[in-house]
Amino acid sequence: MPDKTSKQEVLKSIRGTHDSLSVRRSFGDPIELDGVTVIPVARVSGGAGGGGGEGTDENEAGGEGFGAGFGLRVNPIGVYEVHADSVVWKPTVDVNRLLKGGQVLGGIIAVCVTLVVLARSR
Question: Model pTM?
Protein backbone atom coordinates (compact mmCIF):
# COMPACT_ATOMS: atom_id res chain seq x y z
CA MET A 1 0.00 0.00 0.00
CA PRO A 2 1.35 3.52 -0.78
CA ASP A 3 2.94 5.16 2.23
CA LYS A 4 1.50 8.20 3.98
CA THR A 5 4.35 10.42 2.77
CA SER A 6 3.42 9.85 -0.90
CA LYS A 7 -0.20 10.77 -0.26
CA GLN A 8 0.84 13.88 1.65
CA GLU A 9 3.08 14.96 -1.24
CA VAL A 10 0.16 14.61 -3.69
CA LEU A 11 -2.14 16.62 -1.43
CA LYS A 12 0.57 19.27 -1.05
CA SER A 13 0.88 19.49 -4.85
CA ILE A 14 -2.87 19.92 -5.24
CA ARG A 15 -2.88 22.67 -2.60
CA GLY A 16 -0.06 24.35 -4.54
CA THR A 17 -2.23 24.27 -7.65
CA HIS A 18 -5.04 26.02 -5.80
CA ASP A 19 -2.64 28.74 -4.64
CA SER A 20 -1.17 29.17 -8.14
CA LEU A 21 -4.57 29.58 -9.78
CA SER A 22 -5.72 32.42 -7.55
CA VAL A 23 -6.73 35.87 -8.81
CA ARG A 24 -3.38 37.22 -7.54
CA ARG A 25 -1.70 35.50 -10.49
CA SER A 26 -3.90 37.34 -13.00
CA PHE A 27 -2.86 40.88 -12.06
CA GLY A 28 0.81 41.87 -12.06
CA ASP A 29 2.45 44.43 -9.82
CA PRO A 30 1.53 48.01 -10.76
CA ILE A 31 4.25 49.95 -12.58
CA GLU A 32 4.30 53.75 -12.50
CA LEU A 33 5.73 55.67 -15.48
CA ASP A 34 5.41 59.43 -15.98
CA GLY A 35 2.35 59.75 -13.75
CA VAL A 36 0.55 56.77 -15.34
CA THR A 37 0.15 53.51 -13.45
CA VAL A 38 0.18 50.38 -15.64
CA ILE A 39 -1.27 47.13 -14.27
CA PRO A 40 -0.53 44.03 -16.40
CA VAL A 41 -3.30 41.42 -16.67
CA ALA A 42 -2.97 37.77 -17.69
CA ARG A 43 -5.23 34.75 -18.21
CA VAL A 44 -4.10 31.95 -15.91
CA SER A 45 -5.27 28.37 -16.31
CA GLY A 46 -4.05 25.02 -15.15
CA GLY A 47 -4.75 21.98 -13.10
CA ALA A 48 -3.36 19.12 -11.11
CA GLY A 49 -3.97 15.44 -10.76
CA GLY A 50 -2.95 12.70 -8.46
CA GLY A 51 -2.55 8.98 -8.74
CA GLY A 52 -2.64 5.96 -6.56
CA GLY A 53 -2.24 2.25 -6.74
CA GLU A 54 -1.89 -1.05 -4.97
CA GLY A 55 -1.12 -4.60 -5.96
CA THR A 56 -3.81 -6.54 -7.81
CA ASP A 57 -3.02 -9.79 -6.01
CA GLU A 58 -2.09 -10.31 -2.36
CA ASN A 59 0.81 -12.56 -3.38
CA GLU A 60 2.26 -9.94 -5.76
CA ALA A 61 5.34 -8.10 -4.50
CA GLY A 62 6.02 -4.41 -5.10
CA GLY A 63 2.53 -3.50 -6.22
CA GLU A 64 2.62 0.05 -4.95
CA GLY A 65 2.46 3.37 -6.70
CA PHE A 66 1.53 7.00 -6.48
CA GLY A 67 2.13 10.17 -8.43
CA ALA A 68 1.08 13.72 -9.07
CA GLY A 69 1.20 16.20 -11.91
CA PHE A 70 0.74 19.93 -12.27
CA GLY A 71 0.41 22.29 -15.20
CA LEU A 72 0.06 26.06 -15.43
CA ARG A 73 -0.42 28.33 -18.44
CA VAL A 74 -0.22 32.12 -18.39
CA ASN A 75 -1.19 34.30 -21.36
CA PRO A 76 -0.91 38.11 -21.26
CA ILE A 77 -4.23 39.69 -22.24
CA GLY A 78 -3.65 43.40 -21.69
CA VAL A 79 -2.98 46.23 -19.27
CA TYR A 80 -4.97 48.75 -17.32
CA GLU A 81 -3.63 52.31 -17.64
CA VAL A 82 -4.59 54.32 -14.59
CA HIS A 83 -4.43 58.09 -15.20
CA ALA A 84 -5.25 60.81 -12.68
CA ASP A 85 -8.86 61.03 -13.90
CA SER A 86 -9.53 57.77 -15.81
CA VAL A 87 -8.76 54.09 -16.26
CA VAL A 88 -8.22 52.71 -19.78
CA TRP A 89 -8.15 49.03 -20.77
CA LYS A 90 -5.58 48.22 -23.51
CA PRO A 91 -5.88 44.63 -24.78
CA THR A 92 -2.85 42.73 -26.01
CA VAL A 93 -2.92 41.76 -29.68
CA ASP A 94 -1.94 38.10 -30.12
CA VAL A 95 -0.35 38.23 -33.58
CA ASN A 96 0.21 34.45 -33.73
CA ARG A 97 -3.48 33.81 -33.08
CA LEU A 98 -4.47 36.31 -35.77
CA LEU A 99 -2.11 34.66 -38.28
CA LYS A 100 -3.48 31.20 -37.52
CA GLY A 101 -7.03 32.49 -37.93
CA GLY A 102 -6.10 34.08 -41.27
CA GLN A 103 -4.55 30.82 -42.48
CA VAL A 104 -7.65 28.84 -41.54
CA LEU A 105 -9.90 31.38 -43.25
CA GLY A 106 -7.67 31.34 -46.35
CA GLY A 107 -7.84 27.53 -46.45
CA ILE A 108 -11.63 27.55 -46.20
CA ILE A 109 -11.89 30.12 -49.01
CA ALA A 110 -9.52 28.06 -51.21
CA VAL A 111 -11.61 24.91 -50.69
CA CYS A 112 -14.87 26.79 -51.43
CA VAL A 113 -13.46 28.37 -54.61
CA THR A 114 -12.19 24.96 -55.77
CA LEU A 115 -15.60 23.38 -55.18
CA VAL A 116 -17.36 26.17 -57.11
CA VAL A 117 -14.94 25.85 -60.04
CA LEU A 118 -15.37 22.05 -60.12
CA ALA A 119 -19.17 22.35 -59.95
CA ARG A 120 -19.25 24.83 -62.86
CA SER A 121 -16.94 22.72 -65.02
CA ARG A 122 -19.35 19.74 -64.95
Answer: 0.51
